[in-house]
Amino acid sequence: MKSLLDVRDLKVRFITESGVARAVDGVDLSIHAGKTLGVVGESGCGKSVTSRAIMGLVEMPGWIESGQILFQSKDGPVDLAALPPRGQRMRGIRGREIAMIFQEPMTALNPVLTIGDQIIEAMQVHGAIDRRMARERALAGLAAVRIPLPHMRLDEYPHQLSGGMRQRAMIAMALVNSPSLLIADEPTTALDVTIQAQVLDLMNDLRREFSGAIMFITHDLGVIAAMADDVVVMYRGRVVECAPVRSIFRNPLHPYTQGLLRSVPSLTSRRGARLQTIEGSVPRATERERGCSFAARCAQVMPACREAIPASVAIAPGHTTACFLHHSSVAVSGDA
Questions:
Q1: Quick one: which H or E segment has residue 64?
Q2: Strand partners for 146
Q3: Is the peptide bond before 148 cis (omega within 30 degrees of 0)?
Q4: β-sheet bridge partners, residue 25
Q5: Pairing mode, if any, of strands 238-244 and 230-235?
Q6: Strand 98-101 to 181-185 pairing
């Protein structure tokens, strides 16, 4: 299957008071047309920075140090990493061919413009369309995301809408130009549990109708199970496992993936039982480590893990992991 987007050895750096932070440190991933790629990992693992690099939204003191972001644009293949973020080509792609739903709609929406004006502006900035037609499309977009009384909401301001309706309005704005790729960055984190479920149900329905691809970023493996076709597990700026969603849940290979799955509450868990956790925390992006970043937290650590960064190896069709436990020669010597 041909990829809509290929990220190859992407490295994104930020200058901080503590030194240079390696926020994304050699990420490889692919997104296929018509499919949903779930990207999962703890906070600080580089998920959102990867998505912002794709959108050309990494600003100083950050920059793309190296790597490629190969996108099959309607105007021909292009390396997004090589485009000036404020250049005409990138501005033509951002919002029209690649759209993004942000985590907190109240900070992403303009408080002094009505919801209708913001959706209309998203259309007009990418093509000649008269205001009457744009307004009709905006109204249809709000109706498609199940906002009650869309003709009234069109002329309301963001503060007049509930959190759930603001998120729905942002989804409508993202989809109004029929993008090839939709990036959803933790779109339900800021919502309460009931509204989260409603928005996820909506996105699942839209996923069936939406002809493009979706990159769904979350820390919630339950959401991944419901939304994704394929899964990328990130840890400290790197991809540690990549597989079809069923393979991730049936046969997780990397100790980090296994730990994340053990941390998910289960309906079959004994009442009062302690929830399992992964000891420790994600190392700071400014820390330089000689070996595997997960070694300090891993119960299966071997000497090789502290000496070198494991390369990603294919274990089954479509299933790769970056772990010395699955490098046959290292695993044998480590057990000796």
A1: strand 62-73
A2: none
A3: no
A4: 11
A5: antiparallel
A6: parallel
Q: Could you give the CA distance from residue 67 to residue 7 in angstroms, rounded to a whole number?
A: 8
Q: Where are the alpha helices (DSSP H) in 125-227?
A: 131-144, 150-153, 163-175, 193-209, 221-227
Mean residue pLDDT across the chain: 91
For residue range 112-140, list pLDDT tens digits in order. 999 999 999 999 988 768 899 999 999 99
DSSP 160-179: GS-HHHHHHHHHHHHHTT--
Q: Decide if 97 contacts 103 (C-beta within 8 A).
A: no
Average of pLDDT values for 47-73? Answer: 96
Tens-digit pLDDT profile for residues 171-192? 999 999 999 999 999 988 777 8
pLDDT at 336 over 80: no
233 closest CA partner among 331, 49, 245 = 245
Q: Is 142 helix (H, G, I), strand (E, B) or coil?
A: helix
Q: Two tokens at 303? A: 């000497």
Burial class (CB in 10 A: 0-12, 13-18, 19+), 288: exposed
In the predicted model, is pLDDT for residue 102 greater than 90? no
Task: For the chain, give the longest Cα–Cα distance.
Answer: 74
Contacts of residue 105, Cβ cutoff 8 Å, sequence gap at least 6 = 158, 163, 166, 167, 169, 170, 190
List all residues 6 or more positions away from 129 whose beta carbon is below 8 Å from its beta carbon.
Answer: 123, 137
Those residues whose C-beta lies under 8 Å from the C-beta of residue 47, and which sit 6 or more positions away, are 39, 40, 41, 185, 217, 234
Predicted confidence band at 296 (pLDDT cuts at 50, 70, 90)? very high
- Cα 149 to Cα 161, 162, 261, distances in angstroms: 12, 13, 40
Closest CA to 300 of 249, 260, 247, 259: 259
Taking each helix axis as running N to C, give the angle between helix 163-175 and helix 131-144, from 0 to 180 degrees, rounded to the nearest 10: 130
**What is the chain's alpha carbon radius of gyration, rounded to the nearest angstrom?**
21
Please give the structure tokens belonging to residue 175: 């989809």
